[in-house]
Amino acid sequence: MYGIIFTFLKEYVEERHGGNETWRTLVKATTGQEHKIYFPVVDYSDEEIVGLAQTAADALGLPLPVVLEDFGSYVGPRLMSFYPMYLKDGLDNSFDMIIHAGANIHDAIHRHNPERKPPHLSAQRESDDVLIIHYHSHRKLCHVVRGIVRGLGERFNEKLTIEETQCMYEGAKECIIKVTKS
Fold it and tell me: At a CB cut-off of 8 Å and minimum separation 6, what does 27 contact?
């Protein structure tokens, strides 16, 4: 996982869960190092980010999926700011953003680093008010995807209902997430 996600996780913890001291405590509990710097384009182990998230969930007394989805809602709008070069003008709603940006950002990551295995993410409109997202990854971070969708909905002031109709955690080959605008 690229270091930028660790940077976003650090910001999330500092803004929503107790500041830099909390972050340092989580890093030390997970990695044994109190001061660790994550560089945005360096690849770090998936286990490390999941370990940090699990340590945070344990400290908060919350299930890991709840923390991952909340993190996703935090990071979604930030990804728009971090990857503006992959966005086109006129993306003014969550559905268009998800359809366009998801594919372009993951394609760019793979192009710059062919060894990377970014998630497969595709989205198609079923109607003006319904979007179907297909997600597959060995990481199984569908909770983060749902959170990103929620965060983009908040960013564009849209009321979205998010329903996962199929999940890898239940034995499916991919997650299917139905998003409805109301």
Answer: 33, 34, 35, 36, 52
What one-letter code names the amino acid at 117?
Answer: K
- What does the chain come to in residues? 182
pLDDT at 146: 97
Which tokens belong to 101? Answer: 């940006």
Phi, psi values for residue 40, rounded to 5° = -55, -40
> For residue 170, what are its two tokens?
């239940």
Mean pLDDT of the chain: 88
Strand partners, 166: 176
**Single-letter residue type at 173:** K
Joined tokens for residue 63: 């299930």
Give the span between the Cα atoms of 116 and 119, in whole angstroms: 10
Q: Does the model's pTM come out above 0.90?
A: no
Q: Which residues pair with 130 in a beta bridge?
A: 127, 180
Q: In this structure, are residues 131 and 145 in contact, taking their beta carbons and an 8 Å threshold?
A: no
Per-residue pLDDT tens digits for 140-179: 999 999 999 999 999 999 999 999 999 999 999 999 999 9
Among candidate residues 152, 138, 169, 151, the one with its CA nearest the CA of residue 64: 169
